[in-house]
């Protein structure tokens, strides 16, 4: 019996290429999401620093009022 398994291997290669394409697409999406989060973080960090500085200034004013 002479069976041709070349056809089956070709199907596996197509599936592998499709899987690679999907994996690449997912990786690009994750990378874009990570880049977007990274860009957003400095703004959030700056807001947190500003809030902390404002609170520290209020505490400083309160302690100055207590001394007077």
UniProtKB/TrEMBL annotation:
Where is the segment annotated Disordered?
Answer: 1-68
Q: Where is there biased composition of kind Basic and acidic residues?
A: 11-61
- Name-wise, this protein is Small VCP/p97-interacting protein
Say which species the protein is native to: Sphenostylis stenocarpa
